[in-house]
Write a structure and sequence with these properties.
This protein is an alpha+beta fold. It is built from 8 helices and 12 strands.
Length: 368
């Protein structure tokens, strides 16, 4: 035996290197939209957990609360009374972060002390008159009405402002102070950080490859299928290869589309359908109203409406924080703040879990 070991030239004390397995071995993945890397440490999911894992008690939200400033007929803090609306309802935010008439700070005294004018408008959009309803519990026609209103706001604000950000914070975990189903729309006279980075990276990719980054990416993911959550004829939902949050998803049209207002009526209706399917799966994961922050990114507006923006592709980001249960969330702290983003669950594992969930909402299943 000793002779055979010597003849092989191998030291018996040295073990063979393991074959790389993304669900077992840490590695970093590149996010081309943000030009940054994320650390994937899937082996950490094996570590013992002694924290809470039980499902929290279901929160009973009143269908209508006259003291809730988002409800139909309620009086808001500025004294204005909401109409008794029966569908969507949009109003100017009573406490806006952006105002259209802010003064210009002028030229900075030094390159390290720069400031520029920030002008804009902030709106609140209620999805539904009932406070105990969320998007996955709405009908496809009701969700289509929400999308139609988004398009209407893009057409209204886009010609005036360079960026129109539609976003929804759902759940107290995401800082949402009001349970009534709603989103916000902030329009600004400048391009904010995230879309500014996305504009640069998509432009660079188009210059190098001659095709929009996310158009090509959607085709590649459609072929691979391992990160697909749901899809239909017009839309694709995936856990992106570079996902940072545990069950983060990216919603993409299958054709090249620059902005929400470029969608056809059929594409809006199919968008409503796939949103309902995705959000139902989210809620079913831990049988809880799933918290997230989401928002739409499309080609810049304002003066950029006249520019060549073919490098852009319309898309929506969903960033949910939950990881192990309805009460255990991912925190972006420590290493994530000071070095780089890190995730435990691989995107492929997350996609498989979401994909295998039923598309009937757990609350509706309980009433059958």
């Amino acid at each position: 035996m000793e002779g055979s070991e010597c003849n092989s030239g191998m030291d018996p004390r040295v073990t063979a290197k393991p074959t790389f397995n993304p669900s077992e071995h840490q590695h970093i993945r590149y996010n081309p939209l943000r030009d940054e890397w994320v650390l994937v440490s899937a082996h950490r999911m094996k570590r013992p957990w002694s924290g809470q894992v039980e499902k929290p008690a279901e929160v009973n939200i009143a269908r209508h609360d006259p003291s809730n400033p988002l409800c139909p007929g309620a009086t808001r803090s500025n004294g204005e009374v909401n109409p008794v609306y029966d569908s969507t309802y949009v109003f100017d935010n009573d406490f806006p972060s952006l105002q259209p008439d802010a003064p210009d700070p002028g030229i900075g005294e030094h390159p390290l002390f720069q400031a520029k004018a920030a002008k804009g408008i902030c709106k609140v959009m209620c999805f539904h008159p009932h406070s105990d309803i969320t998007l996955p519990l709405m009908s496809i026609s009701e969700i289509t009405t929400v999308i139609d209103k988004w398009v209407e706001l893009m057409k209204e604000l886009g010609p005036v402002y360079q960026w129109v950000q539609i976003f929804e914070n759902k759940g107290a975990m995401m800082g949402c102070s009001n349970p009534h189903p709603h989103c916000q729309v902030w329009a600004s006279n400048y391009l904010p950080n995230e879309p500014r980075i996305a504009d640069r990276t998509q432009r660079d990719y188009y210059s190098s490859h001659g095709v929009p980054m996310l158009v090509e990416y959607a085709k590649l993911e459609s072929q691979k299928k391992e990160r697909i959550v749901v899809e239909n004829e017009e839309w694709l939902v995936i856990v992106p290869h570079w996902a940072t949050w545990p069950f983060q998803t990216l919603l993409l049209p299958k054709r090249h589309v620059l902005r929400l207002q470029d969608l056809s009526d059929e594409e809006r209706e199919s968008l409503a359908s796939i949103m309902k399917r995705l959000l139902t799966k989210y809620d079913n994961l831990f049988e809880v109203s799933f918290p997230y922050s989401m928002g739409w990114h499309g080609a810049p507006t304002g003066q950029s409406l006249l520019d060549d923006n073919r490098h852009w592709q319309l898309h929506a980001h969903y960033y949910p924080p939950l990881l192990r249960s309805a009460t255990i969330r991912k925190f972006m702290v420590g290493y994530e703040l000071l070095a780089q983003a890190q995730r435990d669950l691989t995107p492929e594992q997350a996609a498989e879990r979401l994909r295998n969930l039923p598309e009937v909402h757990y609350k509706q299943k309980q009433t059958e």
